[in-house]
From TrEMBL:
This is Protein ABHD18. It comes from Macleaya cordata (Five-seeded plume-poppy).
Amino acid sequence: MVTVKLGMLHYVLDHIYGAFVHRTKLSPPFFSRGWGGNKLVLLESMIKQLFPEAAAQNWPPRVVHPIWRTVWETKNACLREGVFRTPCDEQLIDALPPESYNARVAFLTPKAVPPHKMSCVVHLAGTGDHTFERRLRLGGPLLKENIATMVLESPYYGQRRPTMQHGAKLLCVSDLLLLGRVTIEEARSLLYWLDAEEGFGKTGVCGLSMGGVHAAMVGSLHPTPVATLPFLSPHSAVVAFCEGILKHATAWDALREDLAVQQAAMTLEEVRERMRSVLSLTDVTRFPIPKNPEATIFVAATDDGYIPKHSVLELQRAWPGSEVRWVTGGHVSSFLLHNDAFRKAIIDGLNRLPWKESSL
C-alpha cells in the first residue's frame, strides 16, 4: 500500500510540474507556428533515410575537428569546450537556423590515462537541457572509473537557440525532426572522432528523455558495438507528444489552422492523427538492432507521467538481449534522484563491450 501511494505521488508530481510548465502562460506551447511547410516535407524524406534499408549509408561520417579551449584543469581531470561546424550535408544546414550551424561540446576527461585505456560516453540533451552542467555532473563521478564524458549541445538549444524561440518550445514540428536528425549526425561524427582520431578503447552514447530517443537511434545506426543507454525515454516521440503530458503543451489549434491553409479543415482528432503519422518517423523499433544489444540498458521509471511503461517495453522487445532497469519514481523525481542508477547503467553497458584490440 505504501509503495502504491508513493507511486501515485510521483505520478502526480509529474502532472503538477507539467501543469505549471506547460499549461501556464509562462511560455508559448510547442509548435505555435505550425508544421513547418515545405521544410517538413523535406525532412520527412531525409528522416526515412535513417531507417534499416539505408543503415549502412553515410559511413564513415564527415570528420569533425573541434577547436578546443581549456575551461579548467587539475592533476586528475581536465574540462575542455570545443566548437565545430555541424557535419550535416548542405540540405540540412540550409534548413537550420543560422544560430545552429556551429556545434558545441564539453569534454571531461581523466588525466594520466591513455585514451586506449579509457572509455567515453557521448551525452545527448533531453527536452529543455540547454547547458552542459547537468550532464557534466552526471559524468563527473565516472572519472574514477576511467570513463570520459562528452556533452553535445543540441541545435535549437543553448547558444544554438534561434532568436525567435523561447526556451525549449520549438516553433514548428519540422524543428523537432531537424533537431533529431542533426543531433544524430553530430553524435555519430563525435563517436567516429573518439574512435578513429583519439583511439578510445570503448565508446557509448546516452541521453535522458528526448536525448534517450536520440541515443537509441545513434546506437542503432553505429556500425560497431557501442554502449547504448536511453534513460527515461520512449520508443517514439509519438508517445511524448500524443500520449504523455507534453500533449498539453502542444499548440493543437495552431496546427489545425496551419493545415486548414494548406488543405481542407480538419478536426482536432484528425490533426492528432496527422501528428502521429509524422512522428512515427521517430519510432526506434523500426531502426536496426544495435551490433551488441547486450550493451543496451534502458533505465525507466515506475510511475512516469511523461513516458508510459509500454513504450519502454516495446523497444526492449524489439532489441532482444537488451535490458530494462526500473527505478521507483516519476519522470521529474527520477531525473533528480536517480543519477546513481544512470551511472551504474553506463558502467555496466561499457563493461559488456570488449576493449579494442589496440587497447589490450
